[in-house]
Each structure stands twice: as C-alpha cells, then as structure tokens.
Amino acid sequence: MRFLVDECSGPVLARWLISHGHDVFSVYDEARGMDDDEIVQKAYAENRILVTNDKGFGEQVYRAQQPHKGIILLRLDDERAASKIEVMRRLVENYADRLAGRFVVVTETRVRFGRQ
Fold it and tell me: pLDDT at residue 80 above 70?
C-alpha cells in the first residue's frame, strides 16, 4: 500500500510501514514543516493514504470538500510509537481492502469508516 505519514504520526511509524513492504512518504523525514493543504494535495496526487493524528484533516475533507485517496485518523489515548504501530498493524491486517478513498477514524478499540 502507499501511505503518506504526517509529521505528527512520527518517523517510527513510517519506518515500520516501510519495513513491512509499504511505499511510504514520511513528512517528518522528507518534508518537515509541510502545511496541511500541501500534505493532502501530495497524498492525492501520489495516490497515497494519509496517516495522521491531526483531526484538522477531517475539516478539510468534509467542510472544504478536498479530494483524497484515503485518510486514517489515529485518535489514540496512548500516543507512543508502539501503540501507533499496533493499531496500524491491526488496521492493515483486517481492513486493507477498505481503506482506499475512505476517511477512517481509529482508536485502540474501534475502527469507524466515514463516507467515501
């Protein structure tokens, strides 16, 4: 799968995804300070699913109607890298075929799919 990992989601998660065979652009490692509009546009142009902890992307997608190829919003109580990795591992294992083009909100115990 192709992902764009937002700066706030961290380089450890990006490296874990890469180590599991995914094509990843890490904002933290490759374009630190990139603004949200640029992030959504880059992910869309490169057919990448955006992974973020920033709920502001929901506003961009729903209110501003910005097109996207998929957004995974991590809403975790435990923001440590190990927790992010575990949540992403379960998400990709169980829902990989449902992520493209969807706005997905993920917690430690729940996955909620928004409209396409």
Answer: yes
Please tell me the distance from the alpha carbon of residue 11 to that of residue 27, in angstroms, as a whole number. Answer: 8
User: Which residue type occupies 113?
Assistant: F
- The answer to whether the beta carbons of residues 109 and 76 sit under 8 Å apart is no
Largest separation between any pair of C-alpha atoms in the chain: 35
Q: Considering the entire predicted model, what is its pTM?
A: 0.94
Query: Per-residue pLDDT tens for 84-116?
Result: 999 999 999 999 999 999 999 999 999 999 865
CA–CA separation, 55 and 73 (whole Å): 7
What are the φ/ψ torsions at residue 74 (nearest 5 degrees)? -90, 115
- Which two tokens mark 40? 């959504």
